[in-house]
Amino acid sequence: MTSHVRWGILSAANIAVKSFLPAVKQSETAVVVAVASRNEEKARSFADEHGIERAYGSYEQLLQDPDIDAVYIPLPNHLHAEWTIRAAQAGKHVLCEKPLAISEEEAARAVTACKKEGVQLTEAFMYRHHPRYDQIKACIAAGEIGDIRGLYANFTFDKHTDTDNVRFQKKMGGGSLYDVGCYPISAARYVLEREPEAVAVQAFFSEDHDDVDMMASGLIEFPNQVGLTFQCGMWAERRNNLLIIGSEGSIEVPSAFIYDPDNRHFYVSVKGERREVEVPEVNHYTLQLDDFGRSILEGRSPRFPAEDSLLNMRVIEACLRSARNRERIHL
Predict the structure, then answer these.
(1) pTM, entire model
(2) Are 254 and 297 found together in one domain?
């Protein structure tokens, strides 16, 4: 192993350009040495544009490169588990975009494969690496807002006219619960440090978008009679916020999941007084990348181990079943 983690990127996806590569530039642990696409010309063009040494015309070729330590997988959702398993079998550590899979069973196979091959695996929920979530949890632990009574979260945007988008392909793991609903679910589990007991979800399945859930509203029931009420959508006004309601106050996170440097602070309200809590301006993708990189270089577990992905996938799958069948699902 070198002093840095040598990365390969499986596909020239837009998120690799907008999020992963900028994170690498700020990283203390990462270098990108290769990119792969099913189109070699596209891979070469991507590599040339971003100063990447090697370009491959297939994902298999990249996985055979002995100089690559880890791979970043920003493929469509239905390919996440398959290529995580293939990467593990090739001895590569894996940072996989969320969701890790499109079913709990698929996610379990991916986690098992990585354990068997002795490689690290983590799901790319970058938001929880930002220090503001540690600050939020510290406020809660200190009792500033009393006992948590409930959480309310929204993560919506409008892309309904982009009909070729993979998010609108049912067989490819499309739909708002997979794409953005996974964030409020993950955040509630992280903040509460508990697992849900039941879910009830209503969704709008669009015939114009391959019958995927374009909007969903749900209630996730946690122990101690605490609930997460959430909305997620891909055909709605843009929203991205989290509200934690306590017996004595509340915490508002205006830009909860997609980080906005100009709107990064959060607010604590207690007995009618509202104060702004300042948080540092940092790249949470870089923090995620370096935590994972150090787990590889130091031979330790990443901050958020792969087992968390199984638990989140269980809830997402239950939400989809609840929405399809119009029933409350016990977990």
Answers:
(1) 0.96
(2) no
